[in-house]
Write a structure and sequence with these properties.
Layout lengths: L4 H5 L4 H13 L5 H13 L7 H11 L2 H6 L1
């Protein structure tokens, strides 16, 4: 099996997973406000696929202004 960014995040605790996503995509740790926003999203996301909220955060970061202009 291929192990990409999301597969590495899924077994991690929520806080560590968020930090890993930010480091992998933006090359920096999330601010406290960004961390809280992501944790809130992860805690309120609904659905059958536990990976979907992490995918949503990943794609939000990849489509961010910061990613598009700094990477």
């Amino acid at each position: 099996a291929e192990y990409g960014v999301l597969e590495r995040v899924m077994p991690a605790p929520q806080k560590g997973g968020i930090e890993y996503l930010y480091l992998a995509v933006l090359g920096r740790r999330p601010t406290e406000a960004e961390r809280r926003l992501c944790l809130n999203y992860l805690n309120t996301a609904k659905g059958d696929d536990p990976a979907q909220p992490y995918r949503d955060i990943f794609y939000a970061l990849v489509n961010s202004h910061e990613f598009n202009f700094n990477h």
